[in-house]
Amino acid sequence: MVYAIDFGTSNTVIARWNAATGKPETLSLVDLSVRLANNPPLIPSLIYIENATQETVVLGQSVRDRGLDLTSNPRFFRNFKRGIGTDIQGFLPALDGRSVTFEQVGQWFLTTLIQQLQAIDPQMNSLVLTVPVDSFEAYRNWLSHVSQSVQIEQIRLLDEPTAAALGYGLTDEKTLLVVDFGGGTLDLSLVQLEKSVQPGAKPLGFILKWGQKAVESSAQRPKIARVLAKAGQNLGGADIDNWLVDHFSTTQGIAATPVTLRLAERLKIQLSSQTEATEAYFNDETLESYELKLDRDRFTQILQEHQFFERLDELMTQVLRQARRQGLEADDIDAVMLVGGTAQIPAVKDWVEQYFPVEKIRFEQPFEAIAHGALQLSQGVEVKDFLYHSYGIRYWDRRKNGHSWHSIIKAGQPYPMPEPVELYLGASIDNQPSIELVIGELGSENSQTEVYFEGDRLVTRRISGGSSQVQPLNDTPEARSIAKLTPPGYPGSDRIKVLFWVDGDRFLRITVEDLLANDTLIDSKPVVRLS
User: Fold this and answer.
1) Model pLDDT, residue 224
2) What is the rounded CA–CA span in Å between residue 391 and residue 408?
3) pLDDT value at position 24?
4) Cβ pair 227, 386 in contact under 8 A
5) Which 3 state secondary structure label does DSSP give 189?
6) Which CB contacts under 8 angstroms, 24+ apart, belong to 141-146?
7) DSSP strand E in 255-333: where?
8) Which of 442, 441, 434, 406 has the alpha carbon at shortest distance from 421?
9) Coil, helix or strand for 64?
C-alpha cells in the first residue's frame, strides 16, 4: 500500500492510494486529525514533548484538545519545520536532561505519524514525502535520516509544487503554475505535464529513492512532469499571524501570547470567507476583556506594511524570467493552481489575478493537492527535474583577504549532466601535501530570509542585498581533502585537473588527475547529493 505525507508548517496531510476506487483518499487519524468547515482532515503540525528521554510525545489536534498549546511551555513546539536544517539564533531547551533540536522534534513528529500508519496498515511498504522547493540540502538529508529510522521498504521525495500540479489531475501537455503558500513557505513552480513516453524509453527516475523495491509497474505508459522553473521563499501564514499579533499589541496593548496568536490565526481564517471577523480575548492576569476586530481592508494594509506583495512580485518575476528562457510567456501558462491555507486569503487571490485571467486560476484543492499528487509517483508518473541551487567551490580571495565562492554548476542545470565541468588547481603553499576542496550550495544573490528567535517566537527576517548565502556541504577535515600530492605541490603552476558532473541520482561526482605525475588520483567519486 502506498502512502504520502505532506508535512507542512501549520498542517500535515496524509493520503493513500485506494486500489479499489483507483483514486487517492485523505486519511483521518483518531485524536490527531481535525476537520473544520469544508476542509478535509488535517493534522495540526503541533507537538508536545511529555518526556524527551522516553520519547513520549503528543501530536496534532490532541495538543489543542488538552490545552497544551496555550502556555509558553518549552515542551510545546509549533512551526518547528522552519527551523529544520537552518542556522537559527536563539535558545532551545534541554528537556529531561536531553538536548532538543528542531531536527529531533521533526523526527519525533514524522516517525510517530508513520508508526500510527503502520499500526493501521501492517502492509504499508511505500511512502512518498514532499519537500519545499526552496529547501537546502540539510533539510533533505534530515528527511533521509528520518526515513532510514523507520521500517518501510521504499521512500521517495517529491517537491511540493510538482506534487500539487499532479494532484489537480489536469490532462497531458498542460503548462501549470503552482502557487503553494502554506504556513511556513511560499513556493512557485512552473510544471509541464507531457504526453506519455514511448514504450522502451529510458525511465527518468525519481527525485530520491531508498530501498531495493522495484518501481511499481503501471498498465499505462508513464507520464512525465517536467519542471521548467522554480522560486521559493521562507514566508508563510505563521509570519502573517505574528504580524496580526503585533498589530493588536500596538493598537490595543494586548500582549503577544500563545492565546493571542491562536486568536490572530482564527481572524485570518475567518477573513478568507467573510469581510469582517471578531474574536473575544480575556486577560487572566489583568481580568480585562478585549474585542479583537479586523476587516479585509485593514488586513490588506497590514500585509502592505510588511512588503508582503513586493515579496510575492519578486518570486513571480523570477519564475516568469526562467520561463522566458524556456521560450514561454505568461500567456502560454494554461492554469494557475493555488495550494495551501495562506493561498486562500482573498488578497493573495487578487494578487494572482493581476498576472493571470480569472478563468485560468483554480483553488478547489488547497489542502489535498500535494499529498494526492505525490501518490501519482506510484501510478506511472515520472518526474524530470533540474538543480534548483547553484554550487561552487571555496577559494581564498587575496584582494578581500577572506574566503569567496567560485560557481561551478549553475541553478537550472538538468541532470545527468551531458558534459563535465573542468577546473584546474594549483598549490597555494610550498611543499603542499594535499589538495582540499570545500563544495557549497549557493543561495540566491538577490535577497535572503533567515530564521531566528524573537523571544520565544520563531520568525523569519528578510535580508536584502549583500553576498549570497552559502551552505557548505563537505566542510570537515576528512571530506574536504580530495587528493594527496606525490611529490608535494608548489605554487606557480596548475597541478591537478578536476572534473565535476552530476549523475542521474543527483550525486556530484569528481575525477581528479595529477598533471605532474600524469596519474588519475580519483575516478568518478561521489562527493555529495545535490538538490
Assistant:
1) 59
2) 6
3) 92
4) yes
5) strand
6) 141/85, 141/529, 142/84, 142/85, 142/103, 142/106, 142/107, 144/208, 144/210, 145/103, 145/107, 146/106, 146/107, 146/110, 146/111
7) 276-282, 289-295
8) 406
9) helix
Helix or strand holding residue 7 (H, E): strand 2-7
pLDDT in tens, 306-319: 999 999 999 999 99
Cα separation, 341 vs 6, in Å, equals 13
Residues 209, 449, 339: CA angle, nearest 5 degrees: 55
- Helix (H/G/I), strand (E/B), else coil: 426: strand
Question: How many Cα atoms sit within 13 Å of 276 on the Cβ side?
Answer: 4
At 99, the amino acid letter reads S
How much is the pLDDT for 308? 96
Predicted local confidence at residue 204, as pLDDT: 29
Distance CA(521)–CA(514), nearest Å, equals 7
Q: What does DSSP assign to residue 27?
A: -
DSSP line for 289-311: EEEEEEEHHHHHHHHHHTTHHHH
Quote the pTM value: 0.69
The pLDDT value given to residue 202: 34
Residue 134, pLDDT score: 56
The pLDDT, as a whole number, for residue 251 is 93
Residues of the chain with pLDDT under 50: 196-222, 445-449, 465-466
Q: Smallest Cα–Cα separation from 516: which of 487, 491, 492? A: 487
> Which residue shows C-alpha cell 509541464?
192
Residue count of the chain, please give it.
Answer: 531
Query: How far apart are alpha carbons 388 and 502 in whole angstroms?
Result: 13
Mean pLDDT of the chain: 82
Distance between CA 357 and CA 443 in Å, rounded?
Answer: 32
In degrees and rounded to multiples of 5, residue 451 shows phi and psi of -100, 130
Q: Beta-carbon neighbour count of residue 383 at 10 Å?
A: 22
**Angle at alpha carbon of residue 155, lines to 153 and 160, rounded to 5°:** 165
Cα Dmax for the chain: 82
Residue 246 to residues 251, 306, 338, 528: CA-CA distances in angstroms?
9, 12, 27, 42
Query: What's the first-to-final CA gap in the chain, in angstroms?
Result: 28
